[in-house]
Hints:
Elements: H1 2-13, H2 20-92, H3 99-116, H4 122-136, H5 143-160, E1 164-173, E2 176-185, E3 189-194, E4 200-204, E5 209-212, H6 219-229
Antiparallel strand pairs: 1-2, 2-3, 3-4, 4-5
Amino acid sequence: MKSLYYISRSLVRSPLARRPLAAAAVVLTALSSTLSTQTFAQTDSLQEQFQQANTALEALTLTNTQLRERIARQEQLIIEMAASIEHAALLADDENSPLNGLIDRMMSDIEQFVESDLPFELEARRRQVERIRGLIDNPAAPISQKLAMLISLYQAEGAYGRSLETYTQTMEVNGVEQEVTLTRIGRIMLAYQTADRTTTAVWDKETDQWVELSAGEYRTSLTRAMNVANGSLNAELINIPISAPVAAQ
């Protein structure tokens, strides 16, 4: 206001004092210019404050969204961990574990399989099955041990299907006990031949019995198969008697 006062006095003293309307116009013009400058400054300041507040709000909104997503993931993780802990506790309960049913089925299946399989090394395999059956039926034995022994048994039985072997065994041939040489090729053939090579027989899966082959039939082939199995002859194509394949049940 002091500046306007001096302006007013100077205008009164000046020749314009004789023209009061002109003096008033000058004063109003100066006042309007000052107010406009202040108004624009205030407007710019408010605009900047609004932009700053809006930027801060956007940042807070983004942070809030990220936190919500993180909390949702943590809640899901907590649910999964709780389920895992509950499942682990259930498995650790040997008496009520759902694995007991699986173990019983696996044991029954392998027992039936051995009895219906080719009768090679049958007594040794039966003893192994009986030993593990005793473990399975023991309520004091931990489930982990039962599973480990069952898996080991399954692996051993599975390996027979990928191997060759020949061994001697005493068995009844034509009503007479004598030593024979048995040859197994995986699970596709089990045959024996007497020491004098007069009798050669193959196990028939369909009838579950030995079938004697006619004189001379497959005799040489079986001898060569024995030599391949014991390592005295390199692997080669051999004409051997096997059962026709059947559809899996």
